[in-house]
Design brief:
This protein has 11 helices and 7 strands. The protein is mainly α. The strands form 3 sheets. A 3-stranded antiparallel sheet has the order 6-5-7. It has a two-stranded antiparallel sheet with strand order 1-4. The structure holds protoporphyrin IX containing FE. Protoporphyrin IX containing FE binds near residues 97, 101 and 232.
């Protein structure tokens, strides 16, 4: 994932700006990127084929958890060479697209909760009122929890993990707002700014689920931007929102997310600081997670023991 982030960052490799450099041999000054490309290709190749071959060789052992992306296809019989290739690289695309983007959003969610106890209280009040305290929430409860929907949407507006989306280049000449854009121009979609435009979002740097006033239309406008545009829009957006939603709902229904304590027992309030890379994470911070009640602890324990089965 680190190599991907480095490779996709505009300006990191001169050859992206001066494509003629691709004809420079790897041993000449300016051709070093070819060695890097070869090495990184080996890494991603091993990762893709390694996990696929592991999946095939463990199909019968019970080590492979089902259902999984490859399972349904492999159960149909031995795939052709082309299909095998497609399966391996669609798996790499799914994991590559999902892993760090989702990890970063989950970390940002916990940071937002530590910084905004008032949001937690409001969400917990909604969960307790709608679901009660006798069962764990379910993804189907989403329909009845507008504040929780706003809480998750606001995560993507406040600090999406892909502030500059994925870089593209124009496939033909274009004119936008009177500006001529030539074919092959690099386009960096500034998703962060679109979601922090003060003309649309009052106090854009503030994490505030109330700004949507419960309107799903206003929330959709955020999610329509956060996952990119056009035919290369993120295919995992629904999965990503559902994952965030499940994690937020499960933790807030059962736990309080609290700041860590220093040696004197004082709360350490973390800064809202983020790395500036293709995929943006929060700077490291500490927190405490405490079950809201003995009943909540038991519900969680039961759910964990069911998962282990
Ligand atoms: C918080 C989570 C996520 C965020 C913020 C995110 C964001 C994005 C963005 C901005 C793009 C670029 C779209 C464009 O080019 O305009 C993208 C592409 C992509 N995403 Fe996601 N994504 C997330 C989760 C996922 C998940 C869970 C998956 C798969 C299960 C996934 C798979 C992909 C793939 C395969 C692409 C490349 C699509 C293409 O180029 O045709 N993403 N994502």
């Amino acid at each position: 994932m680190h190599n991907f982030a480095e490779a996709a960052l505009p300006g990191n490799f001169l050859v992206d700006t001066l494509p003629i450099l691709r004809y420079v041999p790897s041993w000449m000054p300016g051709g070093g990127f070819k060695k890097t490309a070869k090495e990184w290709h080996r890494v991603v190749d091993n990762a893709g084929w390694g996990i696929y071959n592991w999946r095939v060789s463990n199909q019968e052992t019970g080590q492979v958890l089902l259902p999984n992306l490859w399972g349904a296809h492999l159960d149909e019989g031995t795939p052709s060479e082309q299909k095998t290739f497609d399966l391996v690289w669609s798996g790499v695309a799914a994991v590559g697209g999902a892993l760090d983007t989702t990890r970063a959003m989950v970390a940002k969610y916990f940071l937002a909760m530590v910084l905004h106890p008032e949001v937690q209280r409001k969400a917990q009040e909604e969960i307790d009122r709608v679901i009660g305290k006798d069962r764990l929430p379910d993804i189907k409860d989403k329909e009845d929890l507008p504040y929780m929907r706003a809480l998750v949407t606001e995560m993507f507006r406040w600090e999406s993990s892909t502030p500059f989306g994925i870089i593209h280049s124009t496939s033909g000449d274009d004119v936008y707002n009177g500006v001529t854009i030539q074919k092959g121009t690099t386009i960096i979609p500034n998703i962060w700014y679109m979601l922090h435009d003060p003309e649309i979002y009052t106090n854009p740097s503030v994490y505030d689920p109330d700004r949507y006033e419960g309107s799903d239309v206003a929330m959709k406008r955020v999610l329509d931007v956060a996952f990119g545009f056009g035919r290369r829009v993120c295919p995992g957006s629904h999965f990503a929102v559902a994952s965030l939603y499940s994690i937020a709902l499960a933790t807030l229904a059962t736990c309080d997310v609290l700041p860590a304590l220093d040696e004197q027992g004082r709360e350490i309030i973390p800064k809202a600081a983020f790395t500036s890379a293709l995929i943006s994470f929060p700077e490291p911070f500490k927190l405490r997670i405490r079950p809201r009640s003995e009943k909540a602890r038991k519900l969680l324990q039961e759910a964990c023991s069911l998962t282990e089965l």
